[in-house]
């Protein structure tokens, strides 16, 4: 399991805490930025990491911003990605067990460091059940494959 972790400036401190936490567990984790508190666009962070998951460079990612919302929206623009915003351990477990989420997003202004550690650990330890959830994920994949790609003007490309 190779995990990417990244953030915008709003979540820099939480990223540093979670990075050390994951490293202390002996997990293979790559710090994908940001590396300071300068303003950054979450789409410029989330989309390349989501693309790298699809390409197989990373198996999972933890993306952080002020609320977790922007990172989730941006990452979910990449076909094949399932990014779930999680602010509690139950949602983190279900993100993996029911939705096979490759990415979780957290908000540094919403959860504290200790809860964030528990959320990430719960998600990483959970396993996808398949079962009744598999047809739901299959339907999402079918939709993604059937949908025309759009250019910047909203026209099919």
Model description:
With 157 residues, the chain is an alpha/beta fold. The chain contains six helices and five strands; from the N terminus they run E-H-E-H-E-H-E-H-E-H-H. The chain has a five-stranded parallel β-sheet with strand order 2-1-3-5-4, with helices on both faces. Helix 2 crosses helix 3. The longest helix has 14 residues. The chain is globular. Belongs to the LacAB/RpiB family.
Please tag this protein with its features.
about 160 residues, five-stranded parallel beta sheet, alpha/beta
Short note summarizing the structure:
The chain is α/β, with parallel strands linked by helices. It has helices spanning 12-24, 42-55, 69-75, 89-97, 113-125, 134-146, and strands at residues 2-7, 28-31, 60-65, 83-85, 103-107. It has 6 helices and 5 strands.
What is the fold's blueprint, element by element?
Elements: E1 2-7, H1 12-24, E2 28-31, H2 42-55, E3 60-65, H3 69-75, E4 83-85, H4 89-97, E5 103-107, H5 113-125, H6 134-146
Parallel strand pairs: 1-2, 1-3, 3-5, 4-5
Helix pairs in contact: 1-5, 2-3, 4-5
Family: Belongs to the LacAB/RpiB family.
Biased composition (Basic and acidic residues): 136-157
Keywords: Isomerase
Major β-sheet annotation: 5 strands, parallel
Number of helices: 6
- Order of strands in the sheet with the most strands? 2-1-3-5-4
Report the oligomer. single chain
N-C termini distance: 35 Å
Radius of gyration: 15 Å
Helical percentage: 40-55%
User: Which residues form runs of ≥5 with pLDDT under 50?
Assistant: none
What is the number of beta strands? 5
Residue fraction in strands: 15-25%
Averaged pLDDT, please? 93
Instruction: Give the H and E element order.
Output: EHEHEHEHEHH
Tell me, what's the shape? globular
Structural class: alpha/beta
Protein name: RpiB/LacA/LacB family sugar-phosphate isomerase
Keywords: Isomerase
Family: Belongs to the LacAB/RpiB family.
Biased composition (Basic and acidic residues): 136-157
């Amino acid at each position: 399991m190779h995990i990417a972790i990244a953030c915008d400036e709003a979540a820099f401190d939480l990223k540093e805490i979670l990075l050390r936490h994951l490293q202390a567990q002996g997990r293979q984790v790559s710090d994908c930025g940001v590396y300071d508190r300068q303003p950054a666009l979450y789409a410029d962070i989330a989309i390349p990491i989501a693309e790298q998951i699809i390409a197989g460079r990373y198996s999972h990612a933890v993306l952080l911003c002020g609320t977790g919302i922007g990172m989730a929206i941006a990452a979910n623009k990449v076909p094949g990605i399932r990014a779930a915003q999680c602010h509690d351990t139950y949602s983190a477990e279900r993100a993996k067990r029911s939705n096979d989420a490759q990415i979780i997003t957290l908000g540094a202004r919403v959860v504290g460091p200790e809860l964030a550690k528990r959320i990430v650990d719960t998600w990483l330890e959970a396993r996808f059940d398949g079962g009744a959830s598999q047809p739901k994920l299959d339907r999402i994949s079918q939709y993604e494959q059937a949908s025309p790609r759009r250019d910047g003007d909203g026209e099919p490309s």
